[in-house]
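Re-run with default settings, no changes from the original entry. Doing this only to confirm the output is reproducible before filing.
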Amino acid sequence: MLSIRDLKMSYGGRVLFEGASLTVNYGDRVALVGPNGAGKTTLFSIILGEEKPDEGTVERDAWTMVGYLPQEGEAVGEETVLDLATGRGGEVARYEHILKELEAAGSVDSPAYMEAHAKHDALTDPLVDAKAKKMLAGLGYREHEFHRPAKELSGGWVMRAHLARLLVMEPDLLLLDEPTNHLDLLSLLWLQNYLANYSGALLLISHDRQFMDEVVTQVHEIAERKVIAYTGNYTEFLRQREANYDAQLAAYKNQQKEIGALQEFADRFRSVTSKASQAMAKLKQIERMELIEKPAPPRKPFRFQIPPPPRGGQRAIALEGIHMAYGSLQVYSGLNVSIERGERTVLVGPNGAGKSTLLKIMAGVLEFQKGERKVGHNAKLGYFSQHRADSLDPKKSVLDEVLASGPNLREDEARAILGSFMFRKEEIYKLTEVLSGGEKSRLNLIKFLVDPPNLLLMDEPTTHLDITTVESLTMALERYEGTLVFISHDVHFIRKLANRVLHVNAGTATSYPGGYDYFLDKTGSAGDARAALTAG
């Protein structure tokens, strides 16, 4: 289906990978992993023919239909959500134009013609509307939103509509670049189950380890300018990589020991007439050796200790009789929620149930119409929203922001934490005003960690983090001594941290005083849990 051989690619003198080979067969489910900047998205661009490699070949089966979901979706005009999902928003017309051009050029037997024809057929199928609605519902859309103008929605919701269109077309090979970034927990579980049973092949980039554990059967890692293949899911990849490193390091050390002994003999006896020939033989033996390269250790999560926050009262925060509405839309009517000191509560529930609204009410950044918000004794509250950057001084550097937030933090400690959150070398001197949205989100997260509140409210904190950084954050929050309330679609992150689940749905918040698996237990199974979460 897809064969990549001896690929080399470089940017600005920096080699991303060389001698890289990768094969995807029908039915394969492959994850492409590696640190940010390793070249994962670039490899996708090469596969799609958007970029040319310095060396090597990319071969695709002529009959293979390829579907691609980028990290960011294209701009939308007047089309509805359903138009995007069915291709009526421009995709059908685009394929018709491609087909006419290729027919005029006499290229009706070309792979490009066959692929465009297959995609056009899929999107003009009489059942396309029914298929699209099924996919949209699985990805979190409600029926009344199908005909809503897409331009009224956030980029994340537009991406879901584009993903729905890909699933409607059912490509032979799906290329997905961070498909879970814009999904809530329920949509992620649906997609996870769908892809685990997908009949075509899958090549994806993801930073969600639980998602990869459930979906993929192969992992290819871009590391040290190589593409290294492993069999199994992500957890198995970690085990194999560690074992491979240990074996290669042992082989390297043994060879160095042997070389040292041979060199020592040669140095000692090369001037002794009776031993000179033996000494020369030892040197030639060294020359004939195929030297084993010292392996670079696998990147490990950075361990740092969140400073102890001031001790708060037994009740961290309570909401009593909360009424909240957006115009005529009633979200809560008489809601009661209480968070005790030391609890680690995850908010789960269907899209639109009010999870982020509830977190904002707790944070005091959203006014409600009726009820009372009671903050606990000696509370120091912090609210982390991935869309909020107003706490950053635009004229301060990244490093200065962190040092100002942690008065007892040494510069070397600040540099280490910044490095673990993907701020490299000269990037720590960038002014915050030029940072991307993702960089601002990460910087705000670091500021919370170096000067923590005793009540930490977090909305999707793992977005924009690579998988190793997510693990660093998870380990730090495991040792955090304050109270945590969070929303996340990362099941591994939830499993590690939550000791209480608050199911938010239909204006209520039902408490499950246990972790995520306890919640699944109480609702029957992972499949039943999803049904319970979406019922209302």
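Residues 531-536 have pLDDT under 50 and may be disordered. The longest strand covers residues 315-326.
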